[in-house]
Design goal:
The chain is α/β, with parallel strands linked by helices. The chain has a single domain (19-25, 46-224), classed as Beta Barrel (L,D-transpeptidase catalytic domain-like). Helices cover 14% and strands 26% of the residues. It is built from 4 helices and 11 strands; from the N terminus they run ααββββββαββββαβ. It has helices at 15-25, 47-52, 142-147, 206-213; strands spanning 78-81, 91-94, 99-103, 108-113, 116-117, 125-134, 169-175, 178-187, 196-198, 202-205, 221-224. A 9-stranded mixed β-sheet has the order 1-4-3-2-11-6-7-8-10. Strands 5-9 form a two-stranded parallel sheet. The longest helix is centred in the N-terminal third of the chain and has 11 residues, at 15-25. The chain is globular. The termini are close together.
């Protein structure tokens, strides 16, 4: 991963076409919502990992423990060696390997497993995290409602909660003063981590997005490539 990344692998399709594409993408949950897949054989999971993803009853909307049977061990949150020319505090999303890195001092980073956007909905480039929100309201763009009429009931916003597509936290990605419509947000669908399923956004497990949001400062650079 290099420190100089063009702001969009598609060059944002230029001008008004770009804005329409971004607005049409937005964030949503798996569409249509997938049923829970068959339970795979449980891998050996360290107790430290189980504790890291245990239930969070103190949250405004209590978060259940993650069903770790659905998460590949390589996507568990962990601190790794990560030499980079990017400044500490930078968020880097590796869309090839489905990782999100939060760069730390001393050549390390906290690495999280991520779910990413389906082909045709991805956003990539260099921007900044304008702000974060706890248990945000989600409002689907009009173009998304046109594609999915069942979302009409949320035209004025879906209240926060475990069923809200933005989950426990959302980090809002801006390009300059413009909201790109893309977010880093939470999900309870553990089986989507490591896969391309959402309409454009970067999704982390609720536990991981809470951990990240507690540490990211507004204005931090985010690179998606």
């Amino acid at each position: 991963m290099t420190s100089h990344i063009s702001f969009n692998r598609r060059s944002f399709m230029a001008g008004a076409a770009s804005l329409m594409a971004l607005t049409a993408a937005g964030c949503t949950t798996t569409t249509p919502r997938q049923t829970t897949p068959a339970v795979p054989p449980p891998p050996p999971i360290p107790e430290s990992v189980r504790l890291m993803y245990a239930a969070l009853p103190e949250e405004e909307f209590p978060v259940p423990a993650v069903d770790l049977r659905y998460v590949e061990p390589r996507y568990f949150r962990q601190r790794i060696d990560y030499p980079t020319s990017e400044a500490p505090g930078t968020v880097i999303v590796d869309t090839t390997d489905f990782y999100l890195y939060h760069v730390e001092e001393g050549g390390t980073a906290m690495r999280y497993g991520a779910g990413l956007g389906r082909a045709g909905f991805e956003w990539s480039g260099r921007g900044h995290i304008a702000y974060t929100r706890k248990w945000p309201v989600w409002t689907p763009p009009s173009e998304m409602i046109d594609r999915q009429p069942e979302l009409e009931k949320w035209r004025r916003g879906q209240p926060p909660g475990l069923d809200n597509p933005l989950g426990a936290r959302a980090l809002y990605i801006h390009e300059g003063q413009r909201d790109t419509i893309y977010r880093v947000h939470g999900t309870g669908e553990a089986w989507t981590i490591g896969h391309a399923v959402s309409s454009g956004c970067v999704r982390l497990l609720h536990h991981d997005v809470i951990h990240l949001a507690d540490r990211v400062r507004p204005g931090s650079t985010i690179i998606v490539s």
